[in-house]
Amino acid sequence: MADLELGEVQLAFAHIIWDREPVGSGELVKICEKELNWKKPTTYTVLRKLCEKGLFKNEDGVVTAVLSREEFNASRSERFVEDAFDGSLPAFLAAFMSHKKISSQEVEEIQRMIETYKEG
Question: What does the DSSP 8-state code read for residue 103?
Answer without folding.
Answer: -
